[in-house]
Amino acid sequence: MAVQINPSILSADFARLADEAKAVEGADWLHVDVMDNHFVPNLTLGVPVVESLARATDTPLDCHLMIEAPDRWAPQYVEAGAGSVTFHVEAATAPVRLAREIRAKGARASMALRPATPIEPYEDLLPELDMLLIMTVEPGFGGQAFLDIMLPKIRRTRELISKHGLDLWLQVDGGVSAETIERCADAGADVFVAGSAVYGASDPAEAVRALRTQAESTTAKASWACDH
């Protein structure tokens, strides 16, 4: 199972987004946090910025929609150039229909869970998804401390993915750094969003490489990966 590192531009310089994207060209995806000041108490960017960023970089865009009414808005982010679109299950009216629409438009469909949202009620939805995002902080702001209490939830989610034999990526977002990425990888995550740990480093590209090395080393020894 391939490890993927997705730097979050929430921690980048918004006045230099094209340059900041180039600074992490070795990354697998560029994570774009869309916040509407309703679902979360912060306001970031929207469709026009995603369109511009998609033209400015060859790194595919992983758009995480922390917004109300994703059923209405998510398809527009596919049209804007996103290669993966994540909606929050807490905000979606019809998550299966939305995931199918995102896929039909040509992007990977992903569903996110806030820390207090359990995975078990959504077990039957997993085959409709390409990725599941477990938030390891409360969504809304970058630079928060990692919530260790999410590790059992990551493990349970990995067990459900294995139980159903799914080719489903398991992403973690929030407080991912050199200090926490190995715990996430050992628990079952294979896609890692890192903001401050990448863009706060003196060499963001090297930070991506170092995080990848840590995660790959841990994954190689993890029981879930050996069983896969």
UniProtKB/TrEMBL annotation:
Record SUPFAM superfamilies: Ribulose-phoshate binding barrel
Catalytic activity: D-ribulose 5-phosphate = D-xylulose 5-phosphate
Binding-site list for a divalent metal cation: 31, 33, 64, 173
Signal peptide: none
Enzyme Commission number(s) of this protein: 5.1.3.1
GO MF entries: D-ribulose-phosphate 3-epimerase activity
Keyword entries, A-Z: Carbohydrate metabolism, Isomerase, Metal-binding
PROSITE patterns reported for this sequence: RIBUL_P_3_EPIMER_1, RIBUL_P_3_EPIMER_2
Binding site for substrate: 8, 64, 140-143, 173-175, 195-196
A Pfam cross-reference name: Ribul_P_3_epim
Active site per database record: 33, 173
Gene3D superfamilies (UniProt xref): Aldolase class I
Enzyme class, spelled out: isomerase
Pathway: Carbohydrate degradation
Obligatory cofactor(s): Mn(2+); Zn(2+); a divalent metal cation; Fe(2+)
Cofactor mode of binding and number, as noted: Binds 1 divalent metal cation per subunit.
Family as reported in the entry's similarity comment: Belongs to the ribulose-phosphate 3-epimerase family.
Described purpose of this protein according to its UniProt entry: Catalyzes the reversible epimerization of D-ribulose 5-phosphate to D-xylulose 5-phosphate.
HAMAP family found in the cross-reference section: RPE
Protein name: Ribulose-phosphate 3-epimerase
Species in which this protein is naturally found: Streptomyces cylindrosporus
